[in-house]
Design brief:
single chain, 1 helix, Metal Binding Protein, Guanine Nucleotide Exchange Factor, Chain A, mainly beta
């Protein structure tokens, strides 16, 4: 399997050839806060098979589990590219949303499910739009029943 990806502005690009060791979702508060999203979609790959071009900056701190995690990101657009975990030396956690085709892989497990936002448990019924909302904004105003 050959996977490619990039940051939002394209200044950082990467490629990986091989099979990911794991594909997962993480719901820990650290991933939620660092991504600005409700979860992290990641794939763990051997570092020797991960090739990146472009400058990145890094931010390190202790994770929710108490181990060091280093998050690497594009200094231009701020997109997170990958994480390095104390727990897994020699591996890279690619941020799945940066893949050129994020639908190429599906997660097989999730971590920190106790921190999962309830809407991911089927607790919310959402209106769905196939693309941009091109309707009168008043059509989007409704009360939850």
């Amino acid at each position: 399997m050959k996977l490619k990806g990039q940051c939002l502005c394209g200044a950082v690009r990467y490629a990986f050839e091989g099979d990911p060791l794991f594909v997962f979702l993480c719901h820990c508060r650290d991933c939620q806060q660092s991504s600005g999203s409700l979860l992290h979609f990641g794939l763990i790959v051997p570092e020797v098979q991960f090739n990146r071009e472009g400058e990145v900056r890094a931010y390190s701190k202790k994770s929710d589990a108490g181990r060091e995690i280093t998050r690497e990101f594009c200094p231009n657009c701020g997109s997170g590219i990958d994480n390095r975990l104390e727990l897994l030396p020699g591996a890279v956690v690619i941020k799945g949303g940066t893949l050129d085709d994020p639908s190429a892989l599906a997660p097989t497990f999730e971590l920190f499910a106790r921190s999962k936002v309830s809407c991911f448990d089927g607790g919310a019924s959402l209106r769905s739009f196939p693309g941009d909302v091109t309707v009168d904004p008043s059509e989007l105003m409704w009360k939850a029943s």
